[in-house]
Amino acid sequence: MTTRDSLSPHLRAAAAAILAHREAIRVTWESLLDLHPQEKAAQQAISEQLDACIVSFAGYLLGEDPSISSMADRWWDMGPTREQAADAAVALGLFAETLRRSLARVPGLRVDVARLVPAASEFARDVLGAIFVREGAGTSERDWTRVVEVLARVRRRRMARVSALTDIAHAVSTTQNPDDLFEQVHAACSRIFNGDDFSISLYDAATRAVVPHLLYVGGARRHDLEGQALGSSLHWVVAETQQPLAVADYLAACAEHGAVPEPAYAANGARPWMAAPMVQGDQTIGVIAVFSPLLPFDWEDVEILAGIARHTAVALENSRLLRQQQRRTEQLRAVNQLARRLAALRDPDTLLSTAVVLIHQLLGYSAVSLFLVDDAGDTVSLRAHSNPETARQLLGLRFPIGAQGPGIVAAVAASGQAAVVADVSQDPRYVGTPATADTRSETAVPILREGQVLGVLDVQSTRLNAFDADDLTTLSTIADQLAIALENARLFHEEHERSRALALMLATTRAAGSSLVLDEVLERLAEGLAEAAGVSNCAIYLLDEDGQTLMPTAIATGPRTSFDCGRLRGTVLRVDESPTIRSVLAQREPFSCCRLPQDSRDDPVLERLLAGGCGLAVPLAAKGRVLGLALVIAEQQCDEFTPDRIQLIRGVADSAGLAVENARLYARTHGLAIAEERGRLAQEIHDTLAQGLTAISLHLDLADAYLPHKPEQASEKVRRALELTRANLEEVRRSVLDLRAARLHQMSLRDALWRLVQSFAAETGIDAEFTAEGLTGRLSARVEIGLYRIAEEALCNVRRHAGARHVRVGLTAAAGQVSLTVEDDGVGFAHEDVGRDNGGGFGLMSIRERARLLRGTLDLSSVPGAGTRLVVTIPAEGVLHATPVGKNEDTTA
Predict the structure, then answer these.
(1) What is the Cα–Cα distance from 298 to 817, expressed in whole angstroms?
(2) d(Cα 252, Cα 772) in Å, to the nearest integer?
């Protein structure tokens, strides 16, 4: 049974499919033959003959055997020559492959193409047999057998080459990875040539080096030799001339061209060798080379290898462009992500450390560093590094800026131009460190703002020539973004520091002014100066009356300080013993003790006081007069205080100097007011107690005179003397209460009133309550003493006349006024009696007079049987600050 018979269930469908696609089959057949007749008539004849063969095969499938003999008749009617007969044999040999390729692309075909191909081969043999039987009349069968064998070998070789070229074309269009592409090219070439000794090398036009990337020796891949430049080999000759080269003796050709044989092949003796350049445009990309085990290569072999090399060059270029585009896309995505992250950062140190880590992670560079130019502009220092271990070793590394100085970074900072170093070992500017021993190539890009170099972005790699133009563009873009981010961070930091300085000055001024007690003012001032300086410790010294001695008056220390502050408290400074202190007080200018001479003999007092630390001496002055100085102390040696920081500290000190002067004036005024009040009390005692005692003495003298003769009158005088004694005793008690106002020299009005109410409750047994709202500072001395006296008078009236069970005393400050309220639930009195003094010596008239003297008002309301309410409201002289509304202090005694 023939192969055709095995297809009997599908013969009609197969024949129909072949006839339906005869045009596509013919075009495929012509492409496999690769025939290019010069004459149009010849081309037409070939097409007709191929078409006739396709139709005959369809008839053959349907059992039309005479079609074979008719094919032979048609062939011999053309009168073919031997060459034409050989070409026909080759063409028929490709018929089966033509059907396989053509019908494989037909969708929905119900015939198994794999089973149809053997039938096509059988058809081709039958036709060839008919042709050669007629052509070979008179020729022995053995001769024609040789012819058929030669034609078969030619057919197989051509089919292998066509198949290999097809596979390479497929690999070119689908393979993106160069390593995979090289393997597929080797596999395809091995089907055409012997691939046991085969190489694909890439050519670097910059260094003119040929480097094998795929190398087979004796059928085994030699990874150990790949990547090593070949030097002046025949590969280099092919790469430079951009022409294929085929030689019968590889070693002899090397000697002829002055080339060095490849070490891997030098011992193989005289062998044929062939190579073709991979050229893209006018640029050589690489070289494909192959050895023949025995026979030399012919022109067709060279053409095929050259075609493979051209296809491979296109694939490599496409792969390079694709990788370049993908890398560029990834870089742009990374730059965009980096810009978003950096835009959200405001702290410069956080910005720098985050930037190097992100650049390292997003772009994959081996090491990333950021250098900033210092304020003086003469050095550049490392501020951030992507490797934490390396950062600990290198942070603070400095280079002097200069084109001739050491360091690629310093040169870039000096010129403002980027530098790309393919091999750092060849650049004399490169400075290596143990932490960067693996560095092979480096790129440094300046960070510019309006033409001024802010710093340098430096990227290093462990590979030679690791950076290209795309890297430089990406890094320049990142550097521009860093410049913007650094500028924004700087502006934000300056604004933050400015706001902080204003807030700190305001807070310190408020805190120092919230009290008129000198010790409290100095303590708050010391804390504010330490905070402004950003250190833990501050000591304030005030000049005594002679102006030559500084006395320690306030010390502020941090919670975790290790500084011996006891030394500050126990040290009295003589101005004439310290040249630094004398200069600060005389010039009224701050002095940074970080610049203190190393020789302690220049200022032994200050050196002993600082004990190895550093600080800032700031004068305290007010109204043109020096009051003393503040010494801000850091526990360790540090950089000099910046001008902005010194200006802030000076502003705080100037504001606080006024608070110190006010506290001094207040203490002096308060003392004068108390002295004046004591004088008034003495006068009152003299005017009341002395007169009362005189009256008692007169009544007793009269009683003594009347006693023998007029005992009744004597008894009356004694009774009157007793009454005067009791009245004077009340005056003594009231005077004693007046003397208690001296407490105001040591405590606030609120505390003094609270103690007054407590004493009243304890002495009388009356339930008493005191509340204070709004007032937390100190009033002027006369206002505090006046309100305290009014409270005393009011409580004295309650004790004498009210018969109350409960008393409430309230002190309220609001809207620049202070009010004192005293109310009770006692007997009260009628409205017509409000203007009268109800006894008790001073009474309501004294309260009204005191309120008037304080430029205030008295509001008095009382209903018989419903108690009395007294409210005195006066301007709040000297009040410094008030508590928020709703913050109360209630005390019930």
Answers:
(1) 117
(2) 115
